[in-house]
Design goal:
376 residues; mainly alpha; Cytochrome p450; 2 strands; binds protoporphyrin IX containing FE; heme binding; iron; monooxygenase; oxidoreductase activity, acting on paired donors, with incorporation or reduction of molecular oxygen; iron ion binding
């Protein structure tokens, strides 16, 4: 009789426990959906829900820019996504400076890039971010690493960029400058981060498996953000399906490559080298953490530099008067022979060319990091 009673109690307990868990989950889901306001009838939400914005705009950034320009506060609220987007300098200062601690990147954001970036600087908050930020400022600010970067860029220009451009201009061939600058930036940032030269900008324009895997992994990680709900890509990841399967394979290639680089450095010794990996190895022993840190640097310096240069030359092609101003300024400050040989040495910073208004216009309007996400 006792055992029957106790089995009845345990069945009841299990039943009540599962019922409570189920009801609580449903209630949480309801609150989540209510907060998203999925049925919102406002103009912006309707445009997004029906995709009607695509009739007037090529991409979402242009649409948001249009809305931000119209908004008297420089801020818009996307109810269906639960997002606030602001271009108001006071808000930006508040979020990124005054109350920086209150606005971490947050878990939803770091989950998107987590498989690729791990605990790298772009994907962490708090102490881990502070530590990497301090290390990065220290390293990137040092004179020796700046000289190292300058030497890498100079040799890439002299031995690859100029010969490539000369060869196509001699044959009156057309070249895709964006592709050239992507190769240029990948060679530079890989040499700077790992001390490895992938040779993407060699005259034959070879395919680099590492560059391709890295690009695919970055693209597919970013595309996760476009899924209707994070559940979609998370389920695909568990089942190893479609884009998530591709992403897993691409990340595996990146990992293998990074592990190989780290192992080689450990074997040959790192104290003599100036690349970031060698310098970080002096303080960090955890190889996975080293991999994460260096991969973030690759991401930081790849598309940013490539698209900055592409926008800069595109703007120049649209503004011939700026091109002549830059040429005049360079000749005046440095002399044409020096420029031709790319042996640029600036002794006095006051004399360094300011590159007329060209570069600042690019930095203001043409760079790829248009949005920074923060949680609250
Ligand atoms: C024209 C080229 C570049 C542009 C426009 C650019 C822009 C930016 C922006 C807007 C951020 C802030 C991102 C955020 O907090 O969400 C950032 C962060 C960062 N950038 Fe760059 N960047 C460029 C090149 C580079 C290069 C070449 C490196 C490395 C060698 C680099 C290293 C970093 C690092 C380490 C951070 C993380 C800082 C942090 O989270 O505190 N960047 N960059």
């Amino acid at each position: 009789m006792d055992s029957e009673l106790s089995s009845w109690f345990s069945t009841m307990f299990c039943f009540m426990f599962f019922s409570f868990t189920l009801l609580f989950s449903l209630f949480s889901l309801l609150i989540y959906v209510l907060r998203l306001k999925l049925w919102c009838n406002c103009e912006i939400c309707q445009a997004l829900l029906t995709s009607s914005w695509t009739k007037e705009f090529d991409n979402l950034c242009d649409y948001y820019t249009h809305l931000l320009k119209k908004s008297p506060t420089g801020t818009i609220h996307i109810h269906v996504l639960g997002n606030i987007i602001t271009a108001n300098p006071e808000n930006v200062q508040h979020i990124l400076k005054t109350r920086f601690e209150n606005y971490p990147k947050g878990k939803p954001f770091s989950a998107l890039l987590g498989d690729l970036l791990g605990r790298g600087i772009f994907n962490v908050d708090g102490e881990s971010w502070k530590f990497q930020r301090k290390m990065a400022s220290l390293e990137l600010g040092s004179v020796s690493i700046r000289m190292h970067a300058l030497n890498i860029v100079k040799s890439e220009i002299e031995s690859r960029l100029i010969p490539l451009l000369s060869s196509v201009s001699g044959n009156k061939q057309v070249v895709d400058l964006q592709d050239v600058f992507r190769r240029f930036s990948f060679d530079n940032i890989s040499r700077f981060s790992f001390g490895l030269d992938p040779g993407c900008l060699k005259l034959s324009l070879p395919v680099s498996e590492f560059a391709e895997a890295f690009d695919l992994a970055s693209k597919l990680s970013a595309q996760r953000a476009l899924a209707f709900s994070p559940l979609v890509w998370k389920v695909k990841r568990v089942l190893n399906l479609g884009s998530e399967k591709q992403l897993k394979e691409a990340i595996k290639m990146v990992d293998e490559f990074a592990q190989q680089m780290i192992a080689e450095r450990r074997e040959k010794g790192f104290s003599e080298n100036n690349d970031l990996l060698s310098r970080f190895m002096g303080t960090i022993n955890d190889d996975k953490y080293l991999r994460d840190i260096v991969i973030s640097f690759l991401l930081a310096g790849r598309d940013t530099v490539a698209s900055g240069l592409t926008s800069f030359f595109w703007l120049l092609s649209q503004n011939p008067q700026v091109e002549s101003a830059i040429r005049d300024e360079l000749e005046r400050v440095m002399g044409s022979t020096i420029i031709r040989r790319f042996n640029i040495r600036v002794a006095n910073p006051d004399q360094a060319p300011k590159f007329a208004p060209g570069l600042t216009a690019t930095v203001r309007g043409g760079l790829p990091i248009l949005v920074q996400e923060r949680g609250a």
